[in-house]
Amino acid sequence: MGRIGGRHDERGFEGVKPSLTKLRVVCAVMVLRRIRVFLPLSLLMMSGLVLLWGCGSSSNVDFVAKKEPWRSAEEQACIASGAVRQSNFVRAKSALGGPSVCGTESPYEMSAANGGRVSMKPPAMLRCPMIPQVDRWIAEVVEPAARFHFRQSLAEVTVAASYACRPINHQSGGRLSEHGYANALDVSRFTLASGEIITVKGGWYGTEQERAFLREVHSGACSTFTTVLGPNYDSNHKDHFHVDLARHGRDGLMRICK
After folding, report:
1. pLDDT for res 202
2. How many whole angstroms separate alpha carbon 184 and alpha carbon 129?
3. pLDDT single digits (tens) 164-196
4. Per-residue H/E/C for the chain
5. Average pLDDT for residues 127-133, to the nearest whole number?
6. Domains of the chain and CATH, by start
7. What pLDDT is stored for residue 106 in this prediction?
8. What is the C-alpha to C-alpha distance for residues 257 and 224, in angstroms, rounded to an integer?
9. Which residues, including other chains, have CB under 8 Å from residue 38's CB and lie 6 or more apart?
10. Which residues contact 171 (CB under 8 A, 6 or more apart)?
11. What is the pLDDT of residues 16-40, one digit of tens each?
12. More confident residue, 30 or 163
């Protein structure tokens, strides 16, 4: 089980040298005017943080983000390792870009897990390191739990969210969510072979079977991902499990399981 320390809002930003483009400076000024943060722009640049406001997007999305070199290095290492192979249910897509730091260099669309036996609907858009971890979680945790508690196989997981360029919990002015890097997945319900559906919202405090199944699924996720958030965390997660591979703590090894 991961370490629990204070509230988690997908934080864990470590100090890096600032790398601001002219576009980011312009966007930062726009946000400063909008949310009325009265700090010298030079101070923000020195801190390595970039305030962004829907740059290159028609939607008014404003968030705080900064360049983190480990993300690109981790992604390239994953691709080079061959951990992800294209198939009928895992397909490479064009790079996800912007606005600003949102996106990933080599995203994949994942429409099923465990050799295609468990559907993921709608398909999830994820970066390379997430693909094998999601597959492992579904194959080694979720499906066995379904067989144990309901005596039947798992047919489908419902994807509530994957890639989305937005701040954490949709809070204007907040830090960029791991969803913005295609580094997170939200799952809201599980469909069994019989067609029976177990929802996170209804089952977390539902029947004894549902409660046991969902808690096993949640607990198992904590050994697979670095961040796991569920109904016990806050009201924003009352109807889904959030899992991601963010780096936490100074050494990047801290895990958060709530």
Report:
1. 97
2. 10
3. 888 787 777 678 889 999 999 999 999 999 999
4. CCCCCCCCCCCCCCCCCCCCCHHHHHHHHHHHHHHCCCCCHHHHHHHCCEEEECCCCCCCCEEEECCCHHHHHHHHHHHHHCCCCCCCCEEECCCEECCCCCEECCCEEEEEECCCCEEEEEEEEECCCHHHHHHHHHHHHHHHHHHHHHCCCEEEEEEEECCCCCEHHHCCCCEECHHHHCCEEEEEEEEECCCCEEEHHHHCCCCHHHHHHHHHHHHHHCCCCCEEECCCCCHHHCCCEEEECCCECCCCCECEEC
5. 96
6. 17-67 (no CATH), 69-257 (3.30.1380)
7. 87
8. 11
9. 32
10. none
11. 333 333 333 333 333 333 333 323 3
12. 163
pLDDT of residue 99: 54
pLDDT for 11 beyond 60 = no
Structure tokens at 190: 């599980």
Both tokens assigned to 70: 């480990």
Length of the chain: 258
